[in-house]
Design a protein that fits this description.
With 468 residues, this protein is an all-alpha fold. The protein has 2 domains: 2-261, no CATH class; 299-452, no CATH class. The protein has helices at residues 2-25, 36-61, 68-106, 113-138, 144-160, 169-174, 190-202, 212-231, 236-247, 250-257, 263-283, 286-300, 308-322, 327-348, 364-373, 380-390, 401-419, 421-428, 437-452. Helix 2 (36-61) packs across helix 12. The N and C termini lie far apart (47 Å).
């Protein structure tokens, strides 16, 4: 029963979230757009995973112990109800998307070596995902933070069937009231609750299978990138290459195989939230606004200071909403912030008001080596440079610039983390500075395909719905 329980635990949040995303978009022309299905499933996995943690929080508030009947069954009922609602309201659109995906996977518009390359790349991605799944299933929990900061809470809560407080060393010594203690007692509950969900569905704690959610996060990121690049006008082949690009990032794969860190769930929530926020800023779609709010809220509750990444999305949303006339002001604002921080570090690092946060001690050489020379990021740096050169005329296009502003703001934030050790310790766990790029890497790949203009599909109009 363990394999069936594990499959059920992975499928239910994905079905619930995907159905909710499709239901939110019903009546919009975007449901007919190429790439919507992959994007909806990727976003749905993120939304469904966060919804599962919300169910666990609600049960804890109601003092209901965790169990299969109290946890998995309600999510299954919600998923079934949402699926029935979506099928009744948008069956033609769903069938149309399913047929379009089938034709796309069969590559009927390709011939010769292009068709062979398509199936070879698709098989590579599938085989890579299967091997990562096998790795997660058989490898015990290994990374330091995984079992000292996150899984401690998950194992405790799943064993007790409830959420209990974790406090600092003083609170643990006094034990009034009873308090649990680990390496990061103040860490948010979202990531441990993902493991609690798996353990509850399995009926027991398993050091390996509790981390299957990390593999699901990987699948969500791959699908979200493929769907977004397709929706932005890339051909099906270019979208598949983008999916291969993100699926093959070495450090991303390592985060799946050595599951347990909070960085991969954070990257999933941030990728889905940022892409939905950029679409919402330009289209004013209520569905995209809802997806963006939920996903970014989930990202903010993934780590202690993950809320800072919401500020990274703000310049891109402002650029998409206000249009090209505001881009110069946004760029100047980012530049002024960077200059102000640099000036404060040069003049006021030791003043009381800075509280030591701006003490300057950069690790640029180490960061550059870990990010570029050690193959942690595959060809990401090279791809960014080539995309900027090939698509220099497209960098200020209305569909490219907003995402560029997000990456620019993210680069400034990463530079601040590299330069100031106090900020680095606060936001990047000090020892894992290279993992910060994990949050930006999927967006960077979307930007590479978008900015380079390589593999652009001809302008495609959404198919008319059945009412039309």
């Amino acid at each position: 029963m363990t394999p069936l329980a594990a499959i059920l635990a992975l499928l239910l949040p994905a079905l619930l979230g995907t159905a909710a995303v499709v239901a939110a978009h019903r009546g919009e022309s975007s449901v007919h757009a190429p790439g919507f299905a992959a994007s909806a499933i990727g976003a749905g996995i993120a939304i469904g995973a966060f919804a599962a943690t919300l169910v666990l929080r609600a049960l804890a508030l109601a003092s209901v112990p965790y169990g299969f009947a109290t946890t998995v069954v309600p999510v299954a009922v919600l998923a079934a109800g949402t699926l029935a609602l979506v099928w009744r309201a948008a069956a033609p659109a769903i069938r149309g998307q399913a047929l379009a995906c089938g034709r796309g996977l069969l590559a009927r518009d390709l011939a010769g070596w292009a068709r062979v390359g398509w199936f070879a790349l698709l098989a590579w991605i599938a085989l890579h995902a299967i091997l990562l799944l096998a790795e997660v299933c058989v490898r015990p929990m290994y990374p330091w933070d995984a079992w000292s900061a996150w899984a401690t809470k998950a194992k405790t809560w799943s064993s007790l069937g409830m959420m209990v407080p974790f406090g600092d060393a003083d609170a643990w010594r006094s034990a009034m009231p009873a308090t649990w203690f680990d390496a990061r007692p103040g860490a948010p509950a979202t990531v441990p609750l993902l493991q609690v969900w798996m353990a509850t569905a399995l009926g027991r704690w398993d050091d390996s299978l509790a981390n299957l959610v990390w593999w699901l996060c990987y699948i969500a990121i791959v699908l979200a990138v493929a769907g977004e690049t397709r929706q932005r006008g890339a051909s099906a082949a270019a979208a598949l290459v983008a999916a291969w690009f993100v699926a093959s990032l070495p450090l991303l794969d390592a985060q799946v195989a050595l599951a347990g860190y909070a960085d991969l769930p954070l990257a999933m929530f941030f990728t889905v939230g940022a892409l939905a926020a950029l679409r919402a800023a330009s289209t004013r779609s209520r569905a995209d606004i809802a997806v963006a709010v939920i996903a970014l809220l989930a990202a903010a509750t993934s780590k202690e200071t993950a809320w800072t990444w919401i500020a990274v999305v703000a310049p891109g949303c402002a650029a998409a909403a206000l249009g090209p006339r505001a881009w110069r002001r946004i760029a100047v604002t980012l530049g002024v912030i960077a200059i102000a921080v640099t000036g404060a570090a040069a003049r006021g690092a030791n003043l009381a008001w800075t509280r030591g946060l701006l003490a300057f001690d950069p690790i640029a050489a180490t960061f550059a080596a870990e990010s570029l020379l050690y193959a942690n990021w595959h060809l990401l740096g090279v791809g960014l440079v080539l995309a900027a050169l090939l698509g220099r005329r497209r960098l200020l296009a209305p569909d490219v610039a907003p995402l560029g502003f997000v990456l620019l703001a993210g680069a400034l934030w990463v530079a601040a983390l590299v330069a100031f050790p106090a900020l680095r310790y606060l936001a990047a766990d000090a020892l894992g500075i290279q993992r910060v790029l994990l949050v930006l890497a999927p967006l960077a790949i979307v930007w590479i395909v978008d900015a380079s203009g390589v593999g652009r599909a001809p302008e495609m109009r959404p198919a008319p719905d059945s009412a039309g």
